[in-house]
Amino acid sequence: MYSNSFYYTSLASFISQIKDQEIPDLIQIYGTTPVKEMATWASSLTRLFPTACRIGMACDRHIYNGEIKSTGMTIIFSYFDNTQLIHNSAPFSQQAQQVGQALFDPLITTLGSQQAASYIVLTDNRDFLSNQFFSYPNEHDCLISGGRAGLSDATQSWVLYQDNVLQNHALAVGFVNPNLLVHRDIFVDSIRIGQRMLVTSSEGNILKCLDHLPAQQVYQRYLTNGERLQLPIAAQFALQTVDDSLEINAIPMQLEADGALTMSEPLAEGAQVQFLYINPSHSIYSATLKTQELETLQPESVFIFKCISRNDVNSESPTENLALIGSSQTLNGPYCYGEFYSSQFGTHNRQHALTYLAFSESAVSEPNTQQTLTLPANDNPIFPILNLINNTLLDIEQERKALSLLKNNGTDNNWLYDFQTGLLNRFALLNRLQKHDDILHLAVIRVRNFRLINEQYGYSVADDLLAQLAHHIKHQLTLDGTELGFVCYRLSANEIAVSIETKIIPKRTLQVFHKLIEKIEDRAFFTTDSAKNLLTLTLSVGLASTKDHNGHTLCQHQHLLIKASEARRFAQTSNLPLSWNGDIQHQSGSGENLEWIQSIRKALENDQVFAYFQPCFDSQTTQQVGAEALLRVQINGEIIGPFAFLNLIKQTQLYPRITRLMLAQCERLLKQYSDIKVALNLSILDFKHQATLDTLKSFFQRNQVAGRLTLEITESESIQDYEWINPILAEFRQAGALLAIDDFGAGYSNLEKLISLDPDILKLDGSIIKNIDHDEKMQKLVLSINKLAHSLGIKTQAEFVHSQAVHDYLVDIGVDYLQGYHLSKPLSEAQWIKTFE
Question: In what residue span(s) does the EAL domain sit (predicted)?
Answer without folding.
Answer: 593-837
